[in-house]
Specification:
Strand order of the largest sheet: 6-7-8-3-9-10
Radius of gyration: 25 Å
Mean pLDDT: 86
Shape: globular
CATH architecture of the largest domain: 3-Layer(aba) Sandwich
Structural class: alpha/beta
């Protein structure tokens, strides 16, 4: 008996010209994994909302749903999830109440699903966490969400879903925004539990790498319709549809073209830099750094949260005082500048980040782009308008009304707007802090093209902060790999996959899916 049967499911928004999902059918067997892949608005969100009992009010929903050991029901906006169905949400952005601990919220959810007291729900959660290899202890969840790492919350969500002993697991982008090492560990736990318990998985994926890790059957959707379907192993290497080819085109991990290292004046010069104060015995707490970054060049700081990569980046751009050594930014020693002078210097630095809250939600698209021009360059209005319009056109936002508020934009549009804002400032240095985080495969491809164009046209030096080796290798030429506040390896990103001898670096490469492209031997293998 199938774990789930969907027949001719159709979902349409009131007044919309086309359906959000058109005549979708699926048969999902016990123990089987099906991955839904597509950009935002492809139809995968509609499928997950209906199955999870979360359709929006006013939507027209038709078709039939049949869960294991249940009669077929007509799909409607009143559809409720089957009792043996568990929902697995993503930890980024966190869906939790910021004012209560993660543990208390997950315990209440589990207690409600199991029909037991909250204390029993917490005990069940603890049993599952202790069983899962690599999972944090229960105590790590006993804090408000802002004080708990995203990967720890993700483990909590996973354990909560497993504790419900489901027949069907609805996984709604649970790995989105997580570092590749953490994502791989969670996938390993998910597949091990599936093998043990035999439940089916319907997984809505953000990127192609998640599909590769999960395996099983892949369904590619676009504009509410299935464009291609088949085993992940086959579609990952041979795609028939142009849209599937776009998603799998392998942009991540493809090194940028070789750069003429002789061109460009120095933008960043670092001499014996120490980030933390020395110990009492006089020894430095971290390695000292000496390097140079020229205009048009790029450097990646690779590491997980807590590795020290952001502390180092903040020190390099003058947001944090160095414990020792010198940093010269745009020919100025940042260590001798006052806060006012540092603020003026930082006008020549652009920031593009995966944290879309960096943009003021109360501002409009036009104000967001025009503000740095007005504040820094004091341009006449007609020239200001020309600059702003050209930047919005380059990132594909010219069709939106200029008075559209930031709060009304999608995550993808906000990310593109950050690029437009960077374009108009013509910076000498651009800091890219996880610029692709949380975007689907199609949006990642577009963002990479925009960032490459920004780099070639404006020619800034790039400082890339990421936990994903594939992202680093796509955007930068050289790298510093950080772990626990130490630089464990450095070198050219083209060479590191073949030449790395550091186990942590090798684990980052494997987790990022760059192994197949680079030819790096498996850990413990020959070569």
């Amino acid at each position: 008996m199938s774990a789930l049967e969907i027949t001719d499911l159709r979902v349409s928004r009131p007044g919309a010209q086309r359906a959000e999902l058109e005549r979708f059918s699926l048969s999902l067997e016990p123990g089987e994994t099906v991955v839904l892949l597509g950009e935002v608005g492809s139809g995968k969100e509609a499928i997950m909302r209906v199955l999870g009992g979360l359709p929006e009010s006013g939507y027209d929903i038709s078709g039939t749903l049949k869960f294991a050991n249940a009669d077929a029901d007509r799909a409607s906006r009143h559809t409720k999830p089957h009792p043996r169905t568990a929902w697995l949400a993503g930890a980024y952005p966190s869906p939790l109440n910021p004012n209560a601990t993660v543990l208390s919220q997950l315990s209440r959810v589990l207690a409600r699903k199991l029909g037991v007291p909250v204390a029993s729900g917490e005990a069940e959660l603890n049993v599952v966490l202790r069983r899962l290899e690599g999972a944090p202890p229960l105590e790590a969840l006993d804090a408000p969400p802002k004080n708990v790492r995203a990967e720890t919350i993700a483990w909590g969500f996973l354990a909560t879903a497993f504790a419900q002993t489901p027949d069907l697991l609805l996984a709604d982008h649970p790995l989105s925004g997580l570092a590749p090492l953490h994502a791989r560990a969670l996938v390993a736990a998910l597949l091990a539990e599936q093998k043990r318990a035999g439940f089916a998985i319907l997984y809505a994926a953000t990127g192609t790498e998640t599909a590769r890790m999960l395996g099983g059957r892949l369904i590619v959707l676009r504009q509410g319709r299935v464009v291609e379907e088949g085993p992940v192993e086959r579609l990952a290497t041979a795609q028939a549809h142009a849209y599937t080819q776009t998603l799998f085109k392998g942009a991540l991990g493809e090194p940028p073209p070789p750069r003429n290292t002789g061109r460009g004046e120095p933008v960043l010069q670092v001499y014996g830099l120490e980030i933390q104060p020395r110990h009492k015995n006089g020894e430095s707490a971290r390695d000292s750094l000496t390097f140079e970054l020229r205009r048009g060049a790029s450097l990646a700081l690779i590491g997980e949260d807590g590795s020290g990569r952001r502390d180092l980046a903040r020190t390099l751009i003058g947001l944090r005082r160095a414990a020792g050594g010198r940093v010269v930014l745009d020919a100025v020693d940042v260590g001798i500048l006052s806060e006012n002078m540092l603020a003026r210097l930082r006008r020549r630095i652009a920031l593009i980040t995966g944290d879309d809250d960096v943009l003021d939600p109360r501002m409009t698209i036009w104000d967001t782009v025009a503000e740095p021009l007005r504040a820094h360059l004091r341009l006449p209005r007609n020239i200001l308008n020309d600059y702003g319009e050209a930047a919005l056109k380059r990132v594909g936002l010219a069709s939106l009304k200029p008075n559209t508020s930031i709060a009304a934009l999608s995550a993808f549009d906000r990310r593109r707007l950050q690029v437009a804002r960077a374009i108009v400032t013509a910076p000498v240095l651009a800091v890219l802090d996880e610029p692709l985080r949380g975007l689907d495969a199609f949006a990642q491809s577009v963002m990479l093209d925009l960032l490459r164009n920004f780099r070639s046209q404006e020619g800034p030096a790039l400082l890339v902060i990421t936990a994903d080796f594939a992202v680093a290798r796509t955007l930068a030429e050289t790298a510093l790999v950080l772990k626990d506040g130490r630089i464990v390896e450095r070198g050219a990103l083209r060479d590191l996959p073949q030449n790395s001898t550091e186990p942590f670096t090798r684990s980052l490469i494997e987790a990022s899916g760059s192994l197949a492209q680079s030819g790096l031997p498996q850990a413990g293998g020959e070569g």
